Inverse folding.
């Protein structure tokens, strides 16, 4: 499998793809290794993960450069991702013992009762490329802490990073027969679906997530899906500083070149501040520095996948064809690589794909709304349900809207953020199940009820 740098279109590596036979061999090895790992104390598992976390820091220069080379993520954002992953790992390490410990429900008397949390067994972690450390850590760290073995399938667009992750985990003391990487594309992922694994944890698109859910349904094992979004941001007319809100919204749209599951994908602005918001947003969007992602000054690198450029140009064309106005960007950048200027569309509505279909790029439509009721209705007019943000001076007013939206996460005066202490979950086509928080630790173990008499 060739690894292509999306900024230069050059081949930067070759990786041997797994075959069905090698995937089966890896599974057999994990079968041998998991019971031993499940018997290791949580403290020892935490110590291994702690060494992995330290290694991420010790090797951060090389890891960040690899991530930028294969995904096009601006180098500073690769460092940010590594730092973010380390703080998530630390949170999980600090809380694992508490949430994995056995629980006495009735500690005294003739019949005592307790719950013991046992590993699921061998789980599949089929992962995405946009934040390979962060979305990977959400799954393989609590899975390993809970005593599971992991068959890890990184995205074909983040395989070099996946190989680093495997090398560092093994170096930290996670046995080779407890964590194994499967290299390849969709077909390699499908081989995992055929195996009798004890859980499927997927991060990626709704399209693939649905296939996975259908294919593993008859196994009756846990299947968690962290999928896409079409996340709205609503600006109320009482905001104190429109320029500041525009800056926050812009960052939510273009960070990681818009390739975040919880990126802001559509903006609604109440009419009193609409013109000022569009002016401030557009001015700031035009100033973004597009260029070589290895360059420290670059804010917008290339898109990670070649097909995405045509897809975004198609969404922009569809909107303009239906009456939208392109007020900034939206052109392909004339240079090697998959570059597009951040695009701002106004006069948009929900007949246009840019307001309903996941963009996954630095493209946004800004729609004028009359009041909170209209905003809430439009925010909910989507098949997705990952996050929704409201900017307002009044928490009460914002909360009234946040209560109405059917999403796993809501934000007041912030957006595009994930916290290790809170459950990360999507509703509707944004997913099933959750990671992070204590619930994301418990997602990787199964309770056994003990009735103890005598
Ligand atoms: P994708 O669905 O194309 O691929 C994800 C993974 O599935 C890859 O490893 C791929 O090789 C594998 N795969 C593809 N076809 C398969 C099949 N038939 N069977 C088994 N595995 C298969 O998604 P992507 O392009 O890597 O990621 C982008 C999507 O992920 C976006 O929709 C984004 O919003 C979403 N995402 C969601 C979250 C979240 O936390 N909710 C986080 C990151 C990304």
């Amino acid at each position: 499998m060739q690894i292509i740098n999306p900024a230069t279109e050059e081949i930067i590596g070759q990786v041997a793809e797994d075959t069905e036979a090698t995937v089966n061999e890896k599974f057999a090895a994990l079968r041998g290794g998991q019971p031993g790992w499940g018997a290791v104390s949580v403290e020892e598992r935490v110590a291994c993960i702690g060494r992995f976390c330290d290694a991420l820091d010790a090797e951060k220069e090389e890891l960040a450069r690899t991530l930028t080379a294969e995904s096009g993520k601006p180098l500073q954002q690769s460092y940010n991702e590594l730092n973010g992953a380390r703080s998530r790992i630390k949170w999980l390490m600090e809380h694992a013992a508490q949430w994995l410990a056995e629980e006495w429900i009735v500690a005294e008397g003739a019949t005592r009762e307790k719950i013991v949390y046992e590993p699921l067994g061998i789980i599949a972690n089929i992962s995405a490329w946009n934040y390979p450390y962060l979305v990977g850590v959400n799954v393989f760290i609590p899975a390993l802490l809970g005593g599971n073995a992991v068959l890890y399938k990184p995205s074909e667009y983040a395989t070099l990073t996946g190989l680093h992750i495997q090398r560092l985990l093994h170096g930290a003391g996670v046995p080779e027969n407890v964590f194994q990487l499967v290299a390849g594309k969709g077909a390699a992922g499908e081989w995992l679906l055929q195996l009798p694994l004890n859980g499927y944890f997927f991060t990626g698109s709704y399209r693939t997530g649905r296939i996975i859910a259908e294919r593993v349904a008859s196994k009756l094992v846990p299947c968690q899906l962290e999928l896409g979004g079409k996340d709205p941001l609503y600006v109320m007319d009482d905001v104190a500083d429109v320029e500041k809100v525009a800056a926050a919204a812009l960052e939510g749209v273009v960070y990681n070149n818009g390739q975040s599951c919880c990126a802001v994908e559509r903006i609604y602005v109440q009419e009193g501040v609409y013109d000022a918001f569009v002016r401030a947003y557009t001015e700031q969007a035009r100033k973004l520095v597009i260029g070589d992602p290895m360059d420290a000054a670059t804010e917008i690198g290339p898109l990670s996948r070649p097909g995405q450029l045509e897809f975004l140009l198609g969404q922009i064309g569809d909107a303009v064809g239906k009456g939208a106005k392109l007020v900034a960007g939206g052109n392909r950048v004339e240079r090697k690589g998959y570059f597009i200027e951040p695009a701002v569309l106004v006069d948009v509505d929900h007949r246009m794909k840019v307001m309903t279909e996941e963009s996954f790029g630095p493209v946004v439509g800004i729609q004028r709304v009359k009041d909170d009721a209209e905003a809430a209705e439009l925010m909910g007019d989507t098949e997705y349900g990952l996050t929704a943000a409201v900017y307002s001076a009044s928490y009460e007013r914002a909360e009234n809207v946040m209560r109405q939206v059917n999403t796993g996460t809501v934000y007041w005066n912030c957006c595009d953020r994930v916290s290790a202490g809170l459950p990360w979950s999507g509703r509707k086509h944004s997913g099933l199940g959750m990671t992070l928080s204590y619930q994301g630790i418990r997602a990787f173990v199964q309770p056994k009820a003990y009735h103890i008499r005598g």
Remarks:
- The radius of gyration is 23 Å.
- DSSP finds 14 helices and 20 strands in the chain.
- The longest strand covers residues 111-119.
- Residues 20 and 191 are 6 Å apart (CA to CA).
